[in-house]
Amino acid sequence: MVDLISLGGFILGFGLLIKGADFLISGSVSIAKKLKVSDLFIGLTLISVGTSLPELFVSLSANSHENYDILLGNILGSNIANILLILGLGALVRRIVLSHSTVWKEIPFSLLAAFVLFIVANDVLFKNGSINLLSFSDGLILILFYFVFIYYLLSEQHYKERVGELPTNIVNLPVAIFAVIVGILMLNLGGELVVNGAVYLALLLGVSQAFVGLTIIAVGTSIPELVTSLVALAKKNLPIAVGNAVGSCIANIFLILGISTLKGDIVYSSFRNVDLFMVFVSSFVLLVASLIKKDKMVLDKFEGFFFLVLYTLYIIFLLS
Predict the structure, then answer these.
(1) pLDDT exceeding 90 applies to what percent of the chain?
(2) Cα 180 vs. chain centroid, distance in angstroms?
């Protein structure tokens, strides 16, 4: 028998995601204007962390139940979706102009995140261990790298980089902060409803739990990033659209996975290196795609289509 509550929650979740993204963007941009920081900084920090909260909640729950494949699949799968799916769809909607710092600094930082995780996670390969574990100390290392990233962003603020201003009504700071909080709450509630509904649909269709963890949950927890980026593109705010996607990739590994590791050791299966390699490939492809045109750093419909094809091939690989 079809569970109408799960299906209804699935539809309601999308409504909460869309409106929550609108609140989050409007409030965040108002904060950016009031504090005289760039939209790019807000996208890379406040919005990227806020939209990564579903990954955090799923990861903490998975760690509590020692379901490490779901935890790691959620983090790594979300990063792959952030770039290939979200920016791929975004480039089909609107031509994305990337800033100089995004191409030469933020994207390389996302490559660094994948490389650092590979080093700290593979104890058997690098430390002659008997099992691959992400320990408490590994979590501290990951979080330390995130603070280094934040320090870099703060040090770069004198450039006040702005690309594609967002026309918005600037409200006072308390109202803007309230809008951000409400937006994040709506995004996370909407994300949870959509994930639960997606899992129900997957089970109804007979899809395996492993596939759900690597794809549906990963994509489901990336829906806040997807909706936020698409809404930002619709409002012509490219810094938030790109900064949100790239910043979430950095936050997912350094901050979200780091915090999850502090709750307890995470067993890292060597097979996850395949997904981690795909995370690295996704960021590398984004870097190359942004540099192939001589005159501008842009993502057009061709790059967007290529990203989606690459993501589809990855899903086919998971099914094989």
Answers:
(1) 28
(2) 18
pLDDT digits (tens, 9 = 90+) for 284-309: 999 999 888 766 788 889 999 999 99
How far apart, in whole angstroms, are the C-alpha atoms of residue 34 and residue 320? Answer: 51
What is the pLDDT at residue 209? Answer: 59
Is the confidence at residue 311, as pLDDT, over 90? yes
Alpha helix positions (H), the chain: 4-35, 39-42, 48-50, 53-64, 68-80, 88-93, 100-101, 107-121, 123-126, 136-155, 173-205, 209-211, 217-221, 223-234, 238-251, 257-262, 272-289, 301-319
> Could you identify the residue written with the tokens 């709750």?
263
Task: Pick the closest to residue 87 from 280, 228, 214, 241 (CA basis).
Answer: 241
Higher per-residue confidence, 155 vs 132:
132
Mean pLDDT, range 233-250, rounded to an integer: 75
Per-residue model confidence (pLDDT) at position 162: 44
Burial letters for 120-129: b for 16+ Cβ neighbours within 10 Å, e otherwise? bbbbeeeeee
CA distance 305 to 45: 28
Task: Determine the residue type at 105.
Answer: K
Beta strands 266-267 and 133-134: pairing type? antiparallel
Q: What are the structure tokens assigned to 148, written together?
A: 């280094």
Q: What are 64's two structure tokens?
A: 């509590």
Which pTM value belongs to this model? 0.79
Reference 279, options 186, 182, 214, 204; nearest CA is 214
Cα 269 to Cα 110, 207, 318, distances in angstroms: 22, 22, 16
> What is residue 298's three-state secondary structure?
strand
- Alpha-carbon span 307 to 300, nearest angstrom: 11
> What phi and psi values does residue 134 have, to the nearest 5 degrees?
-95, 110
Domains of the chain from N-terminus onward: 4-319 (1.20.1420.30)
**Of the listed ranges 133-147, 161-175, 183-197, 264-278, the one predicted with least confidence:** 161-175
